Amino acid sequence: MEEGPSLEAIREGFRINWMNMRDASTGEVLWEVGDWNCDADELEAQVPRDILRCRQVSRELNFSSVEVMHSLKLVQQVIFNGEPLEEWNFHFGFVIPNSTNTWQQVIEAADEEEMIPAELLSGNVVIETTFYDGDYPIVTQRVRIWYV
């Protein structure tokens, strides 16, 4: 790791504050959580099934970091029935110490004929997200999705 704070200090000073998901074409908020539990290994989310009809979903993530990070990125793996289905990679870059940041990503949906129905996905999909500073993992969290 580059000269600077220890990996443990970065881990202790990193916090997800809130997150929302929107229909990227209309901006309508479809799901949000205002008090993110960073300590849980696995969370559960009740997400409206209408989100599966969106061609693009915008995810907005607000996070804070006490320490400097040189190359923040996240890797998300979609796991269906215990098997990896797809993986997404997003790069944020440099994080100023003692800062709070909002990070927005747009996720493209699969073609309609490739989509798995909500009834099969609900409770069987886990989104595993790992945040990294460069190649060093900061935190990994899993969210089980229930489509309502």
Q: How is this structure best described in words?
A:
The chain is mainly beta and 148 residues long. Helix content is 7%, strand content 59%. The protein is built from 2 helices and 9 strands, in the order αβββββββαββ. The protein has helices spanning 7-13, 118-121; strands at residues 14-23, 29-33, 42-47, 56-65, 69-80, 83-95, 99-108, 125-133, 136-147. The strands form 2 sheets. It has a 5-stranded mixed beta sheet with strand order 3-9-8-5-6. The protein has a 4-stranded antiparallel beta sheet with strand order 2-1-4-7. The termini are far apart.
Describe how the helices and strands are arranged.
Layout: H1 7-13, E1 14-23, E2 29-33, E3 42-47, E4 56-65, E5 69-80, E6 83-95, E7 99-108, H2 118-121, E8 125-133, E9 136-147
Parallel strand pairs: 3-9
Antiparallel strand pairs: 1-2, 1-4, 4-7, 5-6, 5-8, 8-9
Question: What keyword list fits this structure?
Answer:
single chain, four-stranded antiparallel sheet, five-stranded mixed sheet
Describe what is shown at a glance.
By secondary structure, the chain is mainly β.
> Taking strands numbered 1, 2, ... along the chain, how are they ordered across the largest sheet?
3-9-8-5-6
**Terminal-residue CA separation:** 43 Å
Radius of gyration: 16 Å
Number of helices: 2
| Unreliable spans | none
Outline: globular
> What portion of residues is helical?
under 10%
Biggest β-sheet strands, sense, barrel: 5 strands, mixed
The topology string of helices and strands comes to: HEEEEEEEHEE
Strand tally, please?
9
What percent of residues are in strands? over 45%
